[in-house]
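Design job #97: recover the sequence.
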């Protein structure tokens, strides 16, 4: 079965969509600057909540080193992209 296609800015992800309960722009504005900079180049759409959760975990694992945390987010995103890739 082919992946569901979505129009607009949501991309062509087959991952489930969720209804928003907060203002996503206000939540994005509250994110740390290093995380917002990383999100600007992200390959997939991230909700502010999931991005912040992943950032906190990566930063904790990196013991506060933001460069290592950004690398961890890039690796996480690569794994998520592989999981969401269409089957051959």
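Job complete. Output follows.
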């Amino acid at each position: 079965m082919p992946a569901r296609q979505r129009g607009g800015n949501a991309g062509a992800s087959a991952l489930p969509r969720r209804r928003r309960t907060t203002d996503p722009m206000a939540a994005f504005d509250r994110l740390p600057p290093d995380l917002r900079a990383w999100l600007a180049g992200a390959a997939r759409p991230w909700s502010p909540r999931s991005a912040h959760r992943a950032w906190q975990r990566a930063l904790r694992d990196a013991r506060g080193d933001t460069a290592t945390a950004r690398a961890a987010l890039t690796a996480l995103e690569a794994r998520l992209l592989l999981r969401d890739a269409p089957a051959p």
